Amino acid sequence: MNIIKKMAEIGPFRKPAFIYSYPPCLSRDDARRWLKKLSNGSVAGLEVLLNQTEVKIQLMNTIPSFNSSHEQKKLLLSDSPLSQVTDIESFEFYLIKPSIYSITQENMESWLSSVDFINGEAWIQVLFQKDRNDKWKSLLRQQYDDYLKGISYPSMLAPVRSLQLKIAEISHNIPISIPTIPSFEERKNQTVYRFLIRGYVRGEEIDRKVFIEDLLESLNRQCKENEWEVRRKKEGNKERIEKWSSLKAPYLRHIHPFIVESELVSLLPCTSKIKTTQVIQQEKTVTKKENIIPIFQFLPFGTLQQEPLLLDHFEQELNGSLEKLGVIKEEGLKIIGFEQGPTLIRLNIMLPKGIRLSDLQKVLMDWQTELGITDLLVLQGKEKGTGTLTLPRKNRQAVYLRNLIDTREFKNFSKDKILPFVVGATETGEPYYDDLTRVKHLLVAGTTGSGKSIWLLQFILTLLIWVPPEQLMMYLIDPKRVEFPGFSKFKNVKVYTEIEEAKQLLVKLIDLMEKRYELFGKEGVRNIAQYNRKVKDAPIPYVIAVIDEFSDFLMQDKENGTVEDCIIRLAQKARACGIHLIITTQRPSVDVVTGLIKANLPSRVVFKCSGRNDYSTVLDQKPSFNLLGNGDGACLLEGKVLTRFQGPLIAGTEEEMDAIIETYGKNQSGSAPLLLDIHSQSKEVNTSGPLDELKRYIAFTGETRITHLRKHMKMRMNDVKDLMQVLVEEGWLEAPKNRNSGYKLVKSDQERESFLSANSKEDEK
């Protein structure tokens, strides 16, 4: 009896009427019968005590008896792990999403099955309280009803949900569909409990960390729709620990979430008796997260459908096709594991004796034909005698931007990033992010229908939503006039559709670049990040220039070459002063994407192209796979390896996407930085001889280098020097002071603008 009393002091029950202890192999039927024996409103729980040599589990409740096939016995415990305070850390697990989302899948082993010995001591406690008169069941249904009214993350508190409903009513001008939750319909009639999972662990810091993280991983391994997270705290107050360990039957409060009976059974140490079937669910996917970051609330979620794989059927199909090709005769391939993403399936295979990986690679094209697929990749496996097959899913899944961006992963990634963006979901469904300040500039290529334009739109929208407008200026060059009109509603965005205006913008960006470097020199800093840290009162914004249909833009400037020269200058120098280029093209041929441009744009994104040579032009290598279109892409970002991904969608239809972009633009908060002043200029015509043309060009561009002016004027070097000398005499230029210096422009910006304005009026006459 003393042992039982001592054991009770460890948990919240001073003198429980009944304690049942057993090894962790309780059947699910026993667990359900025990829960039904609990009286309404009563509190029960389980505790786990473990150290270097043993793991012991006990159930605790206040009912007088429990009939079970398991033998009742006393549980012998060592000293309480709370007896010493040194190196103790407390932890408490909680759910990220509301209780309307299920936490378990069917027929999963208990999360406690992974509990192992620890180099130290640990105590885990699961407390739960049974519903009284179905009051909590009613509250849970009310929470679900409010979810269907438009609250994607309904609070447990009714007053807070009332406020959420008002916010949802305000945002009803955006078409957001609220899907039902099938699992809730199955659970809504079950008995409801409130619950709490907490504990202590004592030991070295690394042992404590590994123990808690293993528990969290075990809980999340069986999660269906919801997700667990943990709060950790280093404990040093002995009185606080003793007070917690001696509490008398605490009733759980409104802050503790709800759970239904079938889910509670999964938290008990039960062993499933159901044999494993040959239907394997996908191991990894892009999980749906809701309202982690409120600013993304207007973006719709996508529903990712799990696609089960019939293991035997899949193996038979693979081996049958290889048998037809004469590669195997008796023993076939064995699938030993797989990963599934939105577009692709990656199979890990065991090669049969006598079959080499090269034997499969030799018949790759014929094997694709036999399987009826357009893309199959055979690679070496991680283990001896294994290989990896990558092939398309039969039913590809669309990836939505919010599923990737409204997540804790993106929130954690972007903490110390300035211009974070979403690349997409990898082959295995993992989110892939990067920072534009790290990759410098981007070259994006892809043919019509490849998903290039959709990817570019989500890229722009992500930056405009995430980065405050006072910290970012964005210029969009849209020769087609149809890609970027919705972004004109944003305060810090300017859209250009005229070629002459776009050319002038590039020249202005070069001027801005030079002015910023001059400013950096005065302040003694090397880049924009250092400057903004030093001059906190007047930071300068980052600048992004997006050029759509670069090949068309380049062709219209073939005579002068201004565009290519400006692009190269900006790509070479602009990154450190906070100016970044995004260049896209449908035709990535060598005459468009020249070697000099590629050398200064090391980060590339490519979607499906018309020929394999186009991939080589963009990536400087021929990928071993064929891109499938509709967002299937590959990226070679600076400092990283070639990665295949699925680009995300903003919304399901173009109309929804346009409405979302427009709404974000109209409701953008904050103040915008001063945009560059670009005026439409009529095409320069040589009406008054070479001297006037040279004046107009220098006034327009500010360029005074003879080599550049000679290329523009298409004149001999000596002739250009003669004209420059005339401009020196007229007060336009200052002559070089020595051999190593060049001409210096004397005219001010205002005088140059006046000259161009006067010439423009004369041309009109």
UniProtKB/TrEMBL annotation:
PROSITE patterns: FTSK. Residues 746-765 have a biased composition (Basic and acidic residues). Coiled coil: none annotated. Keywords: ATP-binding, Nucleotide-binding. It comes from the Bacteria. ATP binds at G446, T447, T448, G449, S450, G451, K452, S453. InterPro entries: FtsK/SpoIIIE/SftA, FtsK_dom, P-loop_NTPase. Residues 739-765 are annotated as: Disordered. The keyword Nucleotide-binding applies. It holds the Pfam family FtsK_SpoIIIE. SUPFAM superfamilies: P-loop containing nucleoside triphosphate hydrolases. One of its GO terms (molecular function) is DNA binding. One of its GO terms (cellular component) is membrane. It is found in: Membrane. Gene3D superfamilies: P-loop containing nucleotide triphosphate hydrolases. Residues 429-616 form the FtsK domain. It is a multi-pass membrane protein. This is FtsK domain-containing protein.
